[in-house]
Structure formats: C-alpha cells, structure tokens
Design brief:
By secondary structure, the protein is an alpha/beta fold. Helices cover about 20% and strands about 20% of the residues. It has a single domain (about 5-255), classed as Purple Acid Phosphatase, chain A, domain 2, CATH 3.60.21.10. The chain has 6 helices and 13 strands. Strand 1, helix 1 (about 20-35) and strand 2 form a beta-alpha-beta unit. The protein starts with 5 loop residues before the first strand and ends in a 33-residue tail after the last helix.
C-alpha cells in the first residue's frame, strides 16, 4: 500500500481547433494547484490534425509540468493528406513524440498503453477502434513485466466494447482484449472517444474489467459539460471523480453505458473519415 494516495488526471478529446479555452485554463490551474502524479490524455488531441492544431496541442500539453502520457485518437491522423496518413501517420506528433504511448510508473501504479487506432480499416468507418494482435501483445508484455505488487491502468482511445455486429463493431477485438486484461487483474481501462464520462464494470469470460471513460474538453459536447477525471489510488480503492466547471455530481455526469454510436453530433466543420484500401501495415509508435 502507498502512504499517500496516487493522483492521476485523466483527460481526453480536447480537439484543438474546437477546444474549450475556459475549460482548458481551469484544468491547467487544477494541475498546477493539485500537482497530480501524472496526466493521461486518451486521444483526439486535435480536430482535423492540421499543423496549427498540433502546434496548439503540443504547446499546451508540453507546458503542463507533470509527467504525461498520450494515446493516439482517430482525429489525430491526417484527414486531408492520404499519402502522409498511410506512410507517416504519426509525423505530426513529433513535438511530443516522447509522450506518445508512454508507459508511466507512479507510486504503486503503472499506466500501460494499448493502441486502438489504425491508419486504415477494411470497413467504411475508420473512426472506430481496432486492437491488432501486435498492439495487444505489446500491452500484455508490458503488464506481465511490471514489478510484483504494482497495479495497472491501461490507456486506450476507444472503449474496448464490440457493440453491434463484429463487422461494424465499435472496437474490433475489444472483447478479446478485455478478457486478456481481466486475466491480469488490471484496475481499469482509461478511454475517451465518447465525450461523456462513464465508469462501468464490463463482464468478460475471465471476470469483470472496469472501463473508465473521460469526457471532452472541447465544444463537441454530447450530453454533459466539459470535464476530466480525477483518479486516486490509495493502494486498495480506485476512486474516480468527473470534475467539471458546472459542479455536476459525478454520478450525474457519468452515463450508464457506452452508446452504440459513441460520437457526438457532427459539426459542419467536421470532415468525414477517409475511405480506401491499402496494405495493412501498422508499425508501433515509439
């Protein structure tokens, strides 16, 4: 057990380009005041992955002055440059490359990444999640290598829920990933994408896995105001608070289940995800 609770701020879906500046200023003040052990940002840092959006995201994130790990979201790969999307899809992360899928070791707790995005998919909607065998193997190997007694949270972008048929599922191979994580008794899976917070005990054949979703810090709202999760681990209990400027209680902020269509309404400025077929090559990000 740790003598002092380990504190983690879980942010997601900032969507620079449509970011909520008031909410971001508040979050930055909270980080400076509470000094969490780390910040985990579970993807969709930009709206269209434009250079100016990445510049803004990089400046804000690298200025937090605490350990940070970031996941890749479906909005974080180039929409309008298919050559770059397929050949160098993570080029625009260069300013904070060291933070991408970074494993963090906190007092009694580790944050382990699991990538759920692909540059292409054999289905029309590329905004949905996909856990490749390689990504899952890397995650499981990292979990298995943790020091004895260290508990873990796994950071993804898409909730690990199939939803619907296997051909159009929210996250392909999500059920398999959850079952493998249940075998390792992880504390929970941190995700974004939905734009509403949630805290759900997800059943698997190997036992339950706690799925913890963060809301958005953008103007792309679904049913709750901008928010982030403040998570504490005291060595026995993992506590999640959905923090928001409107002071809505956590239980009222958290949705009861992951919606089948886990996206907010499209804005006129939001582009449609690209469609196409290319060789299925998805190397890891380092």
């Amino acid at each position: 057990m740790t003598s002092e609770p380990t504190r983690l701020f879980h942010l997601s879906d900032i969507h620079f380009g449509l970011e909520d500046r008031e909410a971001l200023a508040w979050v930055k003040r909270e980080i400076a005041a509470k000094r969490p052990h780390a910040v985990a940002i579970t993807g969709d840092h930009t709206m269209r992955a434009r250079h100016r959006e990445w510049d803004a995201a990089t400046a804000w994130i690298t200025g937090l002055d605490v350990p940070v790990t970031i996941s890749i979201g479906n909005h974080d790969m180039p929409y309008f440059n298919p050559v770059e999307r397929f050949l160098t899809p993570y080029k625009r992360f260069e300013g904070m490359k060291a933070l991408v899928e970074r494993e963090l070791h906190l007092p009694g707790l580790a944050i382990v990444p699991l990538k759920t995005v692909r540059r292409w998919q054999p289905r029309i909607n590329w905004s949905k999640g996909w856990v490749t065998d390689e990504a899952l193997e890397r995650c499981l190997a990292a979990l298995d290598a943790l020091p004895k007694g260290t508990r873990a949270l796994v950071a993804v972008h898409h909730p690990l829920r199939e939803v619907g048929t296997h051909g159009t599922a929210l996250t392909r191979h999500g059920e398999q990933a959850l079952a493998e994580l249940a075998k390792r008794d992880v504390l929970g899976v941190l995700s974004g994408h939905v734009h509403d917070p949630f805290d759900i005990a997800e059943p698997t054949p190997e036992g339950e896995v706690r799925m913890i979703g963060a809301g958005t810090l953008s103007h792309r709202l679904r049913s709750t105001p901008p928010s982030f999760n403040e998570i504490t681990w005291d060595g026995t209990v993992l506590t999640v608070r959905a923090r928001n400027l409107e002071r809505v209680p956590t239980r009222e902020m958290q949705i009861e289940d992951v919606p089948p269509n886990a996206l907010p309404p499209r804005t006129p400025e939001e582009p449609v995800a690209p469609v196409g077929r290319v060789p299925p090559v998805d190397p890891p990000v380092h």
